[in-house]
Structure formats: structure tokens, C-alpha cells
Specification:
The protein is α+β, with helices and mostly antiparallel strands and 261 residues long. Among the domains are: 30 residues, no CATH class; 106 residues, Pleckstrin-homology domain (PH domain)/Phosphotyrosine-binding domain (PTB) (PH-domain like). 24% of the residues lie in helices and 24% in strands. It has seven helices and nine strands. The strands form two sheets. Strands 4-3-2-1-7-6-5 form a seven-stranded antiparallel β-sheet. The N and C termini lie far apart (56 Å). This is PLD1 Phospholipase. Keywords: Membrane, Transmembrane, Transmembrane helix. It holds the Pfam family PH. One of its GO terms (molecular function) is phosphatidylinositol binding.
Amino acid sequence: HTVRRQSIKRGEPRQMPSLPHTAESTVREEHFSSRRKQLEDYLTNILKMPMYRNYHGTMEFVGVSQLSFIHDLGPKGIEGFIMKRSGGHRIPGLNCCGQGRMCYRWSKRWLVVKDSFLMYMKPDSGAISFVLLVDKEFNIKIGQKETETKYGLQIDNLSRSLILKCNSYRHAQWWRQGIDEFIRKHGKNFLTEHRFGSYAAVQENTLAKCWLFRPVLCSQATSAVVFIHLYFLRLSPEIFMKRPVVEGNRWRLDCILKRKA
């Protein structure tokens, strides 16, 4: 602890912010707005302190995660704990069991809503377990009749159905409305089909360019060169350029480059 105290940056706040000690019942109505401002300032100062900001209890109470403070990931919607059903599909041959108590395995996960995808993480380690992309088949269903789960929420896209279990119907409705409104506002370009059946809209004036050309043609061999310029673009070689995945790894980026070369 001595080493930690000595290593704290001077610019970081070291003391816990304080709240007024006056009871709420004694506060006049005209002072409610100032009390709300005091509470906002208190929570803001708490989140500026890494020790409290990274504490799981603080994140759960405020409804944020480590990804909430990474601005390069784009706009962020609601977050929170959910119960996720394994696989997203009912287990064949066990339909006799009811209400998901014996047929399904449920796991507690932290769900994050972004502009073009949803993802859930393991609450203990923060490791990302799965990413559900927004596409033209993106749809949300709610209720026991549609999800076969009490207070259930089902999120579909082209490749998967994600089944969630909420604490109440109001909780499920809160998730459904929050996800739907945020995706319709920030991710509407992914909800329709685009050129060549792509899941993403055409982006003009981007810094990423790709050329495919054959510079050498001789009688014995033909050389094909794939030349890609990536400026400020983080792109995984394992990303699938054509979705949904129905032909194995054929349309994975590294496999495409290898095939073209």
C-alpha cells in the first residue's frame, strides 16, 4: 500500500468527494435541482478516480463498464447484468421440461449496447464472450410466448438468436425499448440490405483503399498481387467479409488474400 500511495499521480483526486448531510425530508422543493446537481458532481468525481471507477460494485450501480470510457468505440447505449441462455437455442429432446429451469443453462453476463453491435462480457474478468452484429434481420421479441422463458427477451440477427432472462416484464420492456431506440438512431445503416448484399453501407471518402491487379503476365505463370492500404484502420485478419458464414472460412479476410495471391 505504501508503494501504491507513492505511485499515485499528483493530478488524480485523492479524497472522496462529500455529499451534504442534510436529510432529504428537510430540503425545500425549490432546492431539489441543486441537490440533483450535487449528486451528479459526486458521481462524476467518483468515476474520475480509477480505484472506484474500476470497482465492480461502482460499475454495476452506475451502469457502466470499462468500455464506457473508450471514446474511440463510438456511441454507447445502455449496459447492465443479464441472464443469458447458453447457445441461444432450445436443447433438442428436452422440450418436456418447463420454464427453462432444467432444459437450459443460464449464465450471468454484462450486456453492452453499441451502435452496430451488442456484446456481453464475463463480469468477473471483463473478457468479451460474444459479439452480436446488427444486420437486416435484427429483431427483438419479448414475452414468454415468443421466447419460451418467463420475462424473456430474444434478440435475433442473421446468424444467431440470443435469449435473455430478465427480473420482471418491466425490466424486459426496459431492455427492449433501450436497445431498439438506440439501434434505430445510431445503427440504422446496418438494418437494411446494401450493395452486393453487404451488411454495411457504402462509406465515401474513407482512408481505407484496396486494389486488385495483375502486373505480370508471362507465358508460363500468372502473378496476382493484392495490395491493401490501411490508414488508421484496425482490421482483424480473421474477420468475415461476407456474412452470414455459410461456406466455412472461404470469405474470411486472410483466406481471401491467400486465395487471391
